[in-house]
Amino acid sequence: MTDDGIDYAAVFQGLPGMVALMTPELVFADANQEFLRMAGRTREQVIGRYLFDVFPDNPNNPAATGMRNLEASLKRVAATGERDAMALQRYDVQSPQRPGEWEERYWSPVNAPVFGPDGRVVLLVHRVEEVTELIKARGGPDTGRTRVLEAELYTRARELQEVNERLRQAHAREREVALALQQAMLPVPGPVGRHRPAVRYRPAVGSLNVCGDWYDLVDLPGDCVGVAVGVAVGDVVGHGLRAAGVMGLLRSALSAASRVADGPAQALEVVDLYARSVDGAENTTVVTTHIDWDTHTITYSSAGHPPPALLHTDGTVEYLDQATDPPLGARPDLVHRPEDATAFATGDALVLYTDGLIERRREDIDVGLDRLADSLVRHQGIDPEPLADAVLLELLPPGGATDDTALVIVRL
Fold this sequence. Notes:
By secondary structure, the protein is of the alpha+beta class. 35% of the residues lie in helices and 25% in strands.
């Protein structure tokens, strides 16, 4: 029983359709009463057992494909986290009263993921509608027409499944391209100062695993490599390959400008000018920081981006929000962008992120900033890698965010 007074276990058992829950290893975790009734099995015969030990293919039918098709669908849902509606399947079931005898059965299955707190698939929902009676409809003056419609329905269902499989293969190829693009444009950075930063990249749910969010860390000119470092994050409007292409252009431009500009504000002015010639770059937000270990100073400038957080060793959080200007290309003419600086102490942590981490629909942004600060303070003192994991776990929705998210944490 939950706080709202609803017994969801009872609701699950009382569902009018056939529904089962399986682990990603295809072991039955639960099944509702209708599933057991229609399958002709008891809970003891199903729960805790491997799916295809309970429901193998009919060995008397060498053309049987039901088990293979169902296994492919469930494994695809477990791997991608995406719902899969299968075409009509013939999947014979062994009679519980007469072992060795197989009943011809037809099913219309839908498989869907259940996500855990970390966003991974922890269970598979297998909902199935039996349509055997429809397929086997006989009798009356329309017997011939019924058989023709049955054959037509089955043929169209198989064709639909083949089309879906081709679409999945095309999507898989596009996803491979997207992953290669992401890895090329967002490599894992090396050490910054005496520590390796933690970087995280989470695309929105349903995207191709690429987005318009980016991060960048560059060594700045100086007498000693690593004494001065530029750290930036940005957010291009939109998702997918087009936004990722714009992101790559702006990230490269900012990386180059940071190495030659006199401070982060001037670097943003250069990128602002460049963004005006890039289709799709308008209203991009970005914040860039220059960390100087000699003076223990962070200089920063923001183009409409959420403010970086400076987590101090005393457990307080300071938001760097004193040098904020509109996004790239948002003004009709170029102006000098603001710049500010703040001091840091050894052991502090600088946290840069994109709005997917803190913003929620119909919620004031200050609520998200307070939520981030609370999470940082709660985990203050741990290394950047576990700190990044803890922040994402606490701030992102369990099923994944509807907006892209990039996160960078640097121990100072």
